[in-house]
Design goal:
By secondary structure, this protein is of the alpha/beta class. It is about 40% helix and about 20% strand. The strands form two sheets. A five-stranded parallel sheet has the order 4-3-2-5-6, sandwiched between helices. A two-stranded antiparallel sheet has the order 1-7. Helix 3 links the parallel strand 3 and strand 4. Helix 1 crosses helix 3 and helix 4 packs parallel to helix 5. The longest helix has 13 residues. It is globular and about 50 Å long.
Length: about 150
Protein backbone atom coordinates (compact mmCIF):
# COMPACT_ATOMS: atom_id res chain seq x y z
CA UNK A 1 0.00 0.00 0.00
CA UNK A 2 1.27 3.44 -0.90
CA UNK A 3 1.51 5.97 1.94
CA UNK A 4 0.25 9.35 0.90
CA UNK A 5 2.63 12.30 0.92
CA UNK A 6 1.45 15.77 1.82
CA UNK A 7 2.11 19.25 0.49
CA UNK A 8 1.53 22.67 1.94
CA UNK A 9 -1.60 24.48 0.84
CA UNK A 10 -3.44 27.60 1.88
CA UNK A 11 -7.09 28.10 2.70
CA UNK A 12 -8.06 31.54 1.35
CA UNK A 13 -9.14 34.45 3.55
CA UNK A 14 -12.59 34.38 1.94
CA UNK A 15 -13.71 30.84 2.67
CA UNK A 16 -16.01 28.67 0.62
CA UNK A 17 -18.30 27.29 3.32
CA UNK A 18 -20.53 24.27 2.72
CA UNK A 19 -23.73 24.14 4.79
CA UNK A 20 -25.57 20.85 5.14
CA UNK A 21 -28.33 19.78 7.55
CA UNK A 22 -30.45 16.69 7.97
CA UNK A 23 -34.20 17.30 8.01
CA UNK A 24 -34.54 17.32 11.80
CA UNK A 25 -31.57 19.71 12.06
CA UNK A 26 -32.54 22.29 9.42
CA UNK A 27 -34.23 24.64 11.89
CA UNK A 28 -31.15 24.45 14.16
CA UNK A 29 -28.89 25.31 11.23
CA UNK A 30 -31.15 28.16 10.16
CA UNK A 31 -31.23 29.63 13.69
CA UNK A 32 -27.46 29.29 13.94
CA UNK A 33 -26.94 30.86 10.50
CA UNK A 34 -29.21 33.75 11.48
CA UNK A 35 -27.04 34.42 14.54
CA UNK A 36 -23.90 34.13 12.41
CA UNK A 37 -25.36 35.95 9.39
CA UNK A 38 -22.85 38.81 9.44
CA UNK A 39 -19.85 36.48 9.50
CA UNK A 40 -21.32 34.11 6.90
CA UNK A 41 -22.08 37.01 4.53
CA UNK A 42 -18.31 37.67 4.18
CA UNK A 43 -17.77 34.24 2.65
CA UNK A 44 -19.01 32.16 -0.27
CA UNK A 45 -21.80 29.80 0.78
CA UNK A 46 -22.65 26.47 -0.84
CA UNK A 47 -25.43 24.21 0.43
CA UNK A 48 -27.36 21.10 -0.45
CA UNK A 49 -30.74 21.75 -2.07
CA UNK A 50 -33.39 22.32 0.57
CA UNK A 51 -30.94 23.82 3.06
CA UNK A 52 -29.69 26.30 0.47
CA UNK A 53 -33.21 27.30 -0.54
CA UNK A 54 -34.19 27.90 3.11
CA UNK A 55 -31.03 29.91 3.84
CA UNK A 56 -31.63 32.07 0.79
CA UNK A 57 -35.32 32.66 1.60
CA UNK A 58 -35.08 33.24 5.34
CA UNK A 59 -31.75 35.00 5.64
CA UNK A 60 -31.37 36.64 2.27
CA UNK A 61 -27.83 35.31 1.95
CA UNK A 62 -26.39 34.45 -1.43
CA UNK A 63 -26.13 30.66 -1.42
CA UNK A 64 -25.23 28.34 -4.26
CA UNK A 65 -27.69 25.46 -3.90
CA UNK A 66 -26.68 22.04 -5.14
CA UNK A 67 -29.12 19.14 -5.31
CA UNK A 68 -30.73 17.64 -2.23
CA UNK A 69 -28.47 15.47 -0.05
CA UNK A 70 -30.27 12.13 -0.52
CA UNK A 71 -30.29 12.71 -4.30
CA UNK A 72 -26.53 13.21 -4.44
CA UNK A 73 -25.94 16.65 -2.91
CA UNK A 74 -23.70 15.20 -0.20
CA UNK A 75 -21.60 13.64 -2.93
CA UNK A 76 -21.47 16.95 -4.81
CA UNK A 77 -20.14 18.64 -1.67
CA UNK A 78 -17.61 15.82 -1.24
CA UNK A 79 -16.45 16.17 -4.84
CA UNK A 80 -15.89 19.90 -4.35
CA UNK A 81 -13.89 19.21 -1.20
CA UNK A 82 -11.68 16.79 -3.16
CA UNK A 83 -11.31 19.44 -5.90
CA UNK A 84 -10.27 21.95 -3.20
CA UNK A 85 -13.34 24.10 -3.93
CA UNK A 86 -14.73 23.98 -0.36
CA UNK A 87 -12.71 25.21 2.61
CA UNK A 88 -14.99 24.56 5.58
CA UNK A 89 -17.92 22.19 6.20
CA UNK A 90 -20.79 22.91 8.59
CA UNK A 91 -22.86 19.73 8.70
CA UNK A 92 -25.62 19.49 11.29
CA UNK A 93 -26.42 15.78 11.19
CA UNK A 94 -28.99 13.92 13.22
CA UNK A 95 -27.27 11.40 15.54
CA UNK A 96 -30.63 9.91 16.59
CA UNK A 97 -31.94 8.83 13.21
CA UNK A 98 -30.31 6.71 10.56
CA UNK A 99 -30.47 8.09 7.06
CA UNK A 100 -31.05 6.09 3.88
CA UNK A 101 -27.93 7.76 2.46
CA UNK A 102 -25.68 7.07 5.50
CA UNK A 103 -22.85 5.73 3.27
CA UNK A 104 -22.82 9.08 1.43
CA UNK A 105 -22.63 10.92 4.76
CA UNK A 106 -19.72 8.77 5.93
CA UNK A 107 -17.98 9.38 2.61
CA UNK A 108 -18.49 13.14 2.96
CA UNK A 109 -16.97 13.20 6.44
CA UNK A 110 -14.11 11.00 5.27
CA UNK A 111 -13.21 13.23 2.31
CA UNK A 112 -13.31 16.29 4.60
CA UNK A 113 -10.80 14.54 6.88
CA UNK A 114 -8.62 13.46 3.94
CA UNK A 115 -8.43 17.02 2.55
CA UNK A 116 -7.89 18.52 6.00
CA UNK A 117 -10.76 20.98 6.08
CA UNK A 118 -12.41 22.17 9.30
CA UNK A 119 -15.73 20.44 10.05
CA UNK A 120 -18.46 21.48 12.49
CA UNK A 121 -21.16 18.96 13.30
CA UNK A 122 -23.32 21.01 15.67
CA UNK A 123 -23.98 24.57 16.85
CA UNK A 124 -21.19 24.64 19.42
CA UNK A 125 -18.48 23.43 17.06
CA UNK A 126 -19.79 25.76 14.32
CA UNK A 127 -19.65 28.71 16.74
CA UNK A 128 -16.05 27.86 17.58
CA UNK A 129 -15.08 27.68 13.91
CA UNK A 130 -16.76 30.94 12.98
CA UNK A 131 -15.35 32.79 15.98
CA UNK A 132 -11.79 31.74 15.14
CA UNK A 133 -9.48 34.55 14.03
CA UNK A 134 -8.38 32.16 11.25
CA UNK A 135 -11.80 32.41 9.59
CA UNK A 136 -11.08 35.72 7.87
CA UNK A 137 -7.45 35.18 6.98
CA UNK A 138 -5.48 32.86 4.78
CA UNK A 139 -4.48 29.74 6.66
CA UNK A 140 -1.70 27.27 5.92
CA UNK A 141 -2.58 23.58 5.99
CA UNK A 142 -1.33 20.33 4.53
CA UNK A 143 -3.20 18.33 1.95
CA UNK A 144 -2.53 15.10 0.10
CA UNK A 145 0.02 15.44 -2.69
CA UNK A 146 -2.06 14.03 -5.49
CA UNK A 147 0.68 14.37 -8.10
CA UNK A 148 3.12 12.22 -6.08
CA UNK A 149 0.29 9.79 -5.34
CA UNK A 150 -0.31 9.33 -9.08
CA UNK A 151 3.41 9.03 -9.79
CA UNK A 152 3.67 6.23 -7.23
CA UNK A 153 0.88 4.25 -8.91
CA UNK A 154 2.55 4.03 -12.32
Amino acid sequence: MTRIAYVDATLPARKRIALVAHDHCKEHLLAWAYRQRERLARHELIATGTTGMLLDRRLGLAVESLISGPLGGDQQIGARIAERRIDLLVFFWDPFESQPHDPDIKALLRVAAVWNIPVASNESSADYLLSSPLLDQAHACRVPDYDSYLAGRR
